[in-house]
Amino acid sequence: MIKNKVQELAAHIFNDVVGYRQHIHANPELSFKEFETSLFIKDKLKKWGIEYTDCANTGVVGLITGNQPSDKVIALRADMDALPIHEANDKPYRSKNHGVMHACGHDVHTSSLLGTAYILNQLKDDFGGTIKLIFQPAEELLPGGASIMIKEGVLENPKPNHIVGQHVMPLIDAGKVGFRSGIYMASTDELYVTVTGKGGHGAQPHQNIDPVVIASHIIIALQQVVSRNADPRIPSVLSFGKVIANGATNIIPNEVKIEGTFRTLDEEWRDEAHKRMKKMAEGIAESMGGSCDFDIHRGYPFLINEEKLTANARAFAEEFLGKENVVDLDIWMAAEDFSFYSQVTDACFYRLGTGNAAKDTQYSVHTPRFDVDEDALKISTGLMAYIALKQLGN
């Protein structure tokens, strides 16, 4: 059975994959700067005789073609970049690059896809079709490496019928995976707002136009866009995480800068919300004697898991891991640039459980204490290989 072969190969490569993960974790690189990670990947693919090409500067695209007749193509994707976070874990494989950390599990994704590549390459006589391995840069930074790779033709020559990705999830126990069909993750937009007034002495507010007060009204008022303008059936999030009013206890500044994020699960409402936020902020500032520059950096679209592909992948996961180890996922208002792939081809993005309180790996992604239970790597490689083979019809 192909399942047994995959499991045997996954067990064989497990210790190596853990080593890959620890090496990548110890040597993290920021978005669009994954030069050493890219070389590491290419070295492994070359060693195994897997052909590859460069894409999006640091991206790598490998191809494995089965020896059985078939023109089907499936793509498997892993992201490679780290985050500007100083690691707080004291592990032998902790980051060697000060202020840079694999705090979102991309080290797991990359090492797992390498392990999957090894498995599939060993099984070429057992399947037909082509498997495209996408090692993608810059998931963490707009405009997102996925959008660039798509523009450079990663979904062409050959064109995948499907694309599958996995992402760590510390809220799920290691040994389990999670799936959700349909809309799963939110779009994301970055908001950069500059409120301009007229600064002066804090004891003479009547002679000034206070941008701090104007900015405060704007922040509060904009929440109405979500609470009173959005359809309650469409999840929406508006959050501001940075406010800079560089005055003093007795100095009213000339301007205030605000930065935030807007996320939702509907593209029409997304566009409408942009217009409403901009109009409201500018109107409030003008009515109070100031002005407002409301700049929206449009980010990733929402992520949708195609129903049939996701149902298939879930069924294959239950075959491979047992039904008790496959769980349902809720909508997740975080964003992922895998969404770009999901907008142009059938996609499935599932979650790999990495949590284990006994091993202190329950901390959220994007935090200095994030780490994974590496036992998750026992299934991450084999499961993706099994899904690919089954979806190709083998």
UniProtKB/TrEMBL annotation:
Q: Which UniProt keywords are given for this protein, alphabetically ordered?
A: Hydrolase, Manganese, Metal-binding
Cofactor(s) demanded: Mn(2+)
Pfam families from the xrefs? M20_dimer (PF07687), Peptidase_M20 (PF01546)
Name the InterPro entries for this protein. Amidohydrolase (IPR017439), Bact_exopeptidase_dim_dom (IPR036264), Peptidase_M20 (IPR002933), Peptidase_M20_dimer (IPR011650)
Residues binding Mn(2+) are C104, H106, E140, H167, H366
Which Gene3D superfamilies does the UniProt entry name for this protein? 3.30.70.360, Zn peptidases
Per UniProt, the cofactor note for this protein states: The Mn(2+) ion enhances activity.
Fetch the SUPFAM superfamilies from UniProt: Bacterial exopeptidase dimerisation domain (SSF55031), Zn-dependent exopeptidases (SSF53187)
Per UniProt, what is one GO molecular function of this protein? hydrolase activity
Please state every residue range assigned to the domain named Peptidase M20 dimerisation.
192-283
Name the protein family: Belongs to the peptidase M20 family.
Q: What name is this protein filed under?
A: Amidohydrolase
